[in-house]
Each structure stands twice: as C-alpha cells, then as structure tokens.
Amino acid sequence: MEATGERVFIFDTTLRDGEQSPGASMNPDEKLRIARQLEKMGVDIIEAGFPVASEGDFASVRQIAREIRGCQIAGLARADAADIDRAWEAINGAALPRIHTFISSSDIHLKYQLRKTRAQVLKEAIAAVVHACGYTENVEFSPMDATRSDRDYLCEMVEAVIDAGATTVNIPDTVGYAIPDEFGDLIATLFARVKNIRRAVVSVHCHNDLGLATANALAAVKNGARQVECTINGIGERAGNSAMEEVVMALKTRKDLFDLQTGIRTEYIHQTSRLLTQITGIPVQPNKAIVGDNAFAHESGIHQDGLLKEKITYEIMTPQSVGISETHIVLGKHSGRHAIANRLQEMGYGLVGEELNRVFVRFKELADMKKEIYDEDLEAIVYEEVSRSEEKYRFVYLNVVSGNATVPTATLQMEVAGELLQEAGFGVGPVDATFAAIRKITNTNYPLLKYAVNAVTGGTDAQGEATVQLKFNGRSAVGRGAHPDILVASAKAYINALNRLEWLSKDVRKVKIA
Ligand code: KIV
Ligand code: ZN
Predict the structure, then answer these.
(1) Residue 502, SS3?
(2) Whose CA is nearest to atom 3 of ligand 1?
(3) Most informative mutation of 15, 205, 206, 207 for ligand 1 (most atoms within 8 A of CB)
(4) Stretches in the chain below the pLDDT threshold 70
(5) Which ligand has the minimum distance to the alpha carbon of residue 144?
(6) Which is deepest, 41, 178, 443, 506, by most CB within 10 Å?
(7) Residue 174 CB–ligand 1 contact under 6 Å
(8) Would the CB of 142 count as within 6 Å of ligand 1?
(9) Ligand index nearest the alpha carbon of residue 147
C-alpha cells in the first residue's frame, strides 16, 4: 500500500547532535562524506554543525553548505546575535540555508543555568528569531527542555517566535524525559492552544535516555508534527537521539496507521549506517532495530520454518527495503530439520530420509558445542556421514628419519583407490618430507593454505591434532588428523584434505540432489 498522505520532513542531525556522542568526532572530510550520503538518501535538512563552537566546526559547515546542493543546510546558533551571525556566515553559501536558533524554556534551566526570568528569556527568543530573519526566511526555533517546561509559558513562547518569523518550531525532549502519550499530548496542546501554529512546521527532537526517542517522535507525528529530527544509528548526546532508520521504517511499515511519507530512499539505510560506523568507530549493537547485524537474522527453529514457508510469517519488512541483500538464517542449536534440509539444498546437497537424519543428528551435536554452524561445518558433516565410505586415499604406514645430522626422510604407505603404494620423500624437516611423500604417491601438488598442530590434551603423551588446508580449482578443503605422533596426525590431516578435495571436485552435490 502506497502512502498517499502528507510529507514528514526528515531533519538529520548526525553531524551536530550525533557528533556530540562521546567518541564520535569526525574531521571535515568525514563529515562531507556523511553529508553526501545523507543527500543521496533523500534527507530534507542536514544540520551540519554548530558554527560558533569551533573554527573546525565553522569550516566544516561552510564546506558542506557549499558542496551539498540537494538538501537544506542548517547551522545551529544560541539565541544570541553573535552566534547567529557566525552561523549565517557558515551557511550562506548553501542552496537552501536554514538558521536554527534555541534557548531554554524550562524553569529548571532558567533558574539554574541561565539565571534569567521567563520574561527575559522570552524577549531573547523573539529577538533571536527577528535577527535570524534578517538573513533568511528559513528560521527554526527550539525551546530547549520543552518537555519539562510550563505548558502555558511554552505555548506563549511558541506563539511569539512564530509571530516573529520562525517557520519551523522544534519541540525538544532534551533530556529524554517524556513518555509517548504525554509527548503526543504536548504536541496536541500546541495545536489546540497556539493560534498561529499552522503558520509553522512543528518539529520534534527526542533523546533516548529512557529508550523512548523513536516512540516519542512517532507519538508526536500522530498528533501533527511534520518534521522529525534524528540521527543515523541513533547516535547523539548521552543515550542518543531518535534513530532515523527507525522513524522512517516505522512510518513506511505502518503506513496503515500513519498514511504519511518521507523522502528517504530507504534502500540506502544499511550503507549509510555502515559508513557512519566505519568513520566514527562506534559499533551498532547486534540487536539494534533495522541496522543491527541480527535485525534480519532468524535463529529459532519455529521462525525459520515459518519464514521458509512464507516470509511474511516473521518478517514485517524486507531486508532489501533497507539495503540488505537477504534474510540471514542462523544455523544453531534452535534450528530445525526444515532449515537444515533447506540450507543443504541451497548448498547443493538434496539429502532425504536416513541420510538427512544422520546429518541432522550430527548437526545438533555440533550445535550444542558451537554457537553458529557455518556452511563449512555442514559440509564436513555431510562428508563424514554420507561420503566417507567413498574415500580414495587411505593412510597405512609412516616411518620418518630426522635429526640435525641427516636429510629428513619419510617412507609412506598409502592405499590409492584400493591399491597399496609406497614412496619416500625428502624435505627440510620431517613434516616437509612427509608431505612430499604424500604428493609423490598421489601425484598431486596442491597449494597448502594452512598447516597447524595443536595438543588436544596436556603432557608429553598428548594427542596431537593437525589441520591442513589445500586448494584446488578455486575450492579449498580442510582436513584433520589426530594421533599421539604429530607426524602421523599431520599425514592423516593431509590425506583427509585430499579426500575432501577429491569429493568436492567430483561435484557429488549434483549426484546427491534429490
Ligand atoms: O536536545 C536539544 O534540546 C537540542 C537542541 C539544540 C535542539 O539538541
Ligand atoms: Zn539534542
């Protein structure tokens, strides 16, 4: 269903409030990259910074204002003429510049921080808007700490700044104190009591101290707000701001409730999130809505079963709609037979009946020990359970002579396709000599990608476990071997890898497809 209703403007403050996240500072080049990405996404307004804060902020806002032509560019300023002059200096090169000026409206801030009366602050708010309007008609005003302000005073201030020329009035929940019903009611009160409210766009700016920033923004939208201030990944001062991806996807996914649209090209959401993480180094928690690694990953067997039958059973939006190529089915201990059979099928192993049962039992055993089961793990199980009996190479016997006064020599006996063969190999050490003998007997010379030996138990009588990885024709196979003699373990691992490569190259998968 397409939303037919009004537009909600997306005001992105990743580069201003977002940059106030501890550890999130970005250099001017990085900010420009983010700004370009936001423009590509279809953001309406980019708050590029707080120009009076530092020379660096000023230069960066000015550069963004000059280079980004497809969005409005806002510069933040306190309700003070010098701040506003500086903000204007930074943004006046923009195609569509906006001055965003603010002053606190709560008694708590007035008494303890500003040490001014309500009358004084009201006068300064009006003067700031009038001053900003001397530069541009595009002026936004924010009464800071609005949600803890006296409602009569807030209404008075909002009406006065609109009369003074503000075209956007932003209602900040500066300390993340509001609860959705209450915040929605505050916006409804402004619409009911402020006579000139419809001459301005009502905006909201919510912080996430109680984890309610997105819910509050949506409650405000439900009550008439038509601009939401937000950041990518929800970064921002303290617990952050409303996350853009959450607000936008909620409006899109629940258009049945809102019937509103944004201009955001949601398929860029994932890319933008990753770009920000890469630049700031601030990771996204895996279970973060929309952009977390697990947001489209399903582990429960019941969910996997439902999804495989019909995606809508457990998916309210497609991963593609936010720029992720596909749903991720995580194979782990909660996965059921349906998910395993499906994954095997995708890998080309159409196992059924007894073969599938054996693989499933082994899968469950492994999943109890290992959190996530990857394709290679499944392939190894299939190999062990279904194809082992077809092994071409078998280890029989190994004798190695080594030391500092002799050329290391390995004598090896193997069965190759049922025929008993013996060869000697030489090398720089005993392992090298052993592998040389195997290569001679099998007439192979595949690149060795990995060789490692670990002691499985402690002490000199420890069982050694060797791992060998070989590559052939663009495929690689890992082989493992265990024995108290690490040379025998190594030979067995090499032969195991050869058998698995042989198995892969025969393309047994086609044979096994049901
Ligand atoms: O949280 C806040 O109140 C702000 C204002 C400057 C809008 O960031
Ligand atoms: Zn803020």
Answers:
(1) helix
(2) 174
(3) 205
(4) 1-4, 387-390, 456-463, 506-514
(5) 1
(6) 178
(7) yes
(8) yes
(9) 1
Closest residue CA from atom 1 of ligand 1: 174
DSSP reduced 3-state for 106: coil
Q: What is the 3-state secondary structure (H, E, C) of 297-357?
A: EECCHHHHHHHHHCHHHCCCCCHHHHCCCCCEECCCCCCCHHHHHHHHHHHCCCCCHHHHH
Using CA positions, which residue lies closest to atom 6 of ligand 1?
A: 102
Pull the structure tokens for residue 249.
């996807």
Q: Give tens-digit pLDDT for 46-96.
A: 999 999 999 999 999 999 999 999 999 999 999 999 999 999 999 999 999
For ligand 2, a single-atom ion, which residues have Cβ within 5 Å?
17
Q: Encoding tokens for residue 94? A: 């923009």
- With 0.70 as the threshold, say if the pTM is over it: yes
Asked if residue 333 lies in contact with residue 368, where contact means CB atoms within 8 angstroms, the answer is yes
Q: Reduce the DSSP state of residue 204 to 3 states and report it.
A: strand
Q: Which residues contact 183 (CB under 8 A, 6 or more apart)?
A: 147, 173, 204, 206, 216, 219, 220
First to last CA, the chain: 39
